[in-house]
Structure formats: C-alpha cells, structure tokens
Amino acid sequence: MKNFNRRDTLKTLTLVTGASLLSPLNLIASCNPLRKDKLGVALVGLGYYSTDLLAPGLQITKHCHLAGIVTGTPAKAETWKAKYNIPDKNIYNYENMSGIANNPDIDVIYIVLPPSMHMEYVVKAAATGKHVWCEKPMAMTVQECQTMIDACKKNKVSLSIGYRCQHEPNTLAYQKIVKESQLGKVLQVDCAAGYREGRTDHWKQKREMGGGVIYDMGVYAIQGARLGSGMEPIAVNAAKVWTERPEIYKDGLGEIVEAQLEFPGGVIGNIKTSFAENTNFLNIKCEKGLIEMAPFSAYSGNKGKSPLGEINFPYQVPWQQANQMDMDSLAIMGGKPMPVPGEEGLRDIRIVNAILESAKTVKKVMI
C-alpha cells in the first residue's frame, strides 16, 4: 500500500481548481489588490473562537496580523490591549466600529459573533470599505446570505467564510481522489460531526441567536457530504430533528439532526450532527474502494485511508486557522478570488433550510 507522505504529496496535491497546494496565489476574482506585505485584521467579537484560536493563529501567520478588536466589554478590551499590544486607536466597540473606515492599520474585519448577528455586522463591515471575513455558519437564511454578498459587492470588497477545512491538506487529498475518479465514481457518502455540548445557557441553546446543532456542527456534516461526493445535493429526501435534553434544547430546537441528501445520479449522502455525542467521520464509498476519514473536520489530527494509501498531513492547533487567514490574505493582496467566497456559505444555508423544512413537513424537499 502506497503511503501518502507529506513531502511527496504536497508537491503534487492539487485543489479542485487544479492549483498547487504550495502556490496559494494560484488558488485564488478579482478585488483590488492591496500593496502590503501583511494585512491588518480586526476581530469582531472576543469569545472562545477569537480568544483561543484566531488571536493565537494571528501570531503565527505570515501574511496578516492582529491589528485591532471590536468588543462590547471594556474589561476584554483592556486584557487584549495588554496581551497583544493593541493601540487605543485600533480598539472599537459595536457603536463606533464604523470608524474603522478611516483606519489604515486595518484591512480586514473578521466577524466572529453568534450567527444571528452575522448579516448585520457583515453589512456594517462592508460599509467601511474593508474586506470581510465571516465565521460559519454564514447566516440564518438564504436571503441573509444574499444580503451579505450584495453588500460586499456594492462596496467593492471581498467576502470570505471561515471554512478552515477547505484550506487544509487532508481535505484537499480526499477531494483530489474524488475529483480525479482515482477510485471510480462515488456511490455513497456517510458523514457525522458532533460533540457532547456541556453548556446549557450559551447562544447554541438559543434559537433567536442562531442556536441548534444544524447551524453549527451540521454545516461540517453538510460540507463533508458535498466535498466527499464532489457534487451538490438536489434534494433532502428525509430529515429528523430531535433532542435528548428538552430542558436545554427547548421548543423543538435541534440537539441532534439526521438527514438523507440526494445527489445527481442517485448518489445518497447520509449525514448526522449532534450536540449529544462525540462523532467525527467521513466515509466515501467509491466503485473501487472506500475512503475513510476519521476525524475529518477536527482542529488537528485529521487523517484517513483508502486503497491508495494513508492520508495524514499532521499539524498543530491553531495551524488551520492561521493557514486559512494567510490564504485569504494572499487572495486579497493578489486581487484574486477568495478561496471560500460568500456563495459557498449560501450553498450550505440553502441545504440547512431544506433539512429543517423536510423535518417539519416530513416530506422530500428539493434544493
């Protein structure tokens, strides 16, 4: 069995677009290029993801750096100011963030807020004339996603969604096998993404803030099915949404979701996402064998195997986040298309909405 070792495969591994993994400038429509060596990034929202992953990631990036913050909590502002040596003029709150428009230190505004706030703050960020990155899920509805895309186009700035896995080598490796039909046609995809959520009063348990597992971990399962099949689903054949802890996930809010996606040619994708159990795998059944990824969407340790050999490109946290931000920065500086534009986030939310409709109506829903 041939081993997919890191050195050899990185030289030849190509994206779905056909670009070399080692040539990020080739990966990436055109925005006006920025003539800088490093872009300044302002993080909007200083919760766990910004604190534990993005800010540390920005300490190891080569093409961008932490330049500013937007927070509604003065104590957090003081902590970050001291820790990262952020000047007062680069510290904003939600009321005055429009002032970023006149701050040459900041080139990118990264929205890291609960999903229900994404549309509002992406629109505000775009209005400053700065490029915009937004965490997943992109928004709550297809219309919100489109509003975000339109706002960025109107202000002639780029929009990227924080799908870190689409930049990482293990994901690119299984996509390459599928794209090139190295194991023949894809016949079926099975994917699950979830963890045991211990918090009980977080935005993830609040419908009005974008809570429920389908918008959070569910997007990973949807991404796994889409990227693993190399196709876009045409229907949700069936879906089920339920909770094992109704005292936490109230009024029908989904703690666990299962759905069957139908792809062209009769290919089926079975997905599951959960806040009740730890699960993370992607199985791609092909004519000539099975691609098994486990885990497939973790912050590190993603790996897999197939009849072609091992898929294993190791790295440490927060390399994924740093790599994602570097790739997006290179795209901006080169005036190239974003690797994961707003349209990609919209595709997933269209599927999320169809899954919820199928579960509610107990009917097949076309996408």
- Total beta strands: 15
DSSP helical segment count: 10
Question: How far from one another are the termini?
Answer: 40 Å
Beta content comes to 15-25%
**Rg over C-alpha atoms, rounded to the nearest angstrom:** 20 Å
Q: What does the largest sheet look like?
A: 9 strands, mixed
Mean pLDDT: 92
Shape: globular
Uncertain stretches of 5 or more adjacent residues: 1-31
Helical content band: 25-40%
Structural class, by secondary structure, is: alpha/beta
For the largest sheet, list the strands in their spatial order. 14-13-12-11-7-10-9-8-15
Please write the string of helix (H) and strand (E) elements: HHEHEHEEHEHEHEHEEEEEEEHHE
Blueprint of the fold:
Blueprint: H1 6-12, H2 24-27, E1 39-44, H3 48-57, E2 64-70, H4 74-84, E3 91-92, E4 108-111, H5 118-127, E5 131-134, H6 142-154, E6 159-161, H7 169-179, E7 186-194, H8 217-229, E8 235-242, E9 256-262, E10 268-274, E11 279-286, E12 289-293, E13 304-306, E14 309-311, H9 319-333, H10 342-361, E15 365-366
Parallel strand pairs: 1-2, 1-4, 2-3, 4-5, 5-6, 7-10
Antiparallel strand pairs: 7-11, 8-9, 8-15, 9-10, 11-12, 12-13, 13-14
Helix pairs in contact: 3-9, 5-6, 6-10, 8-10
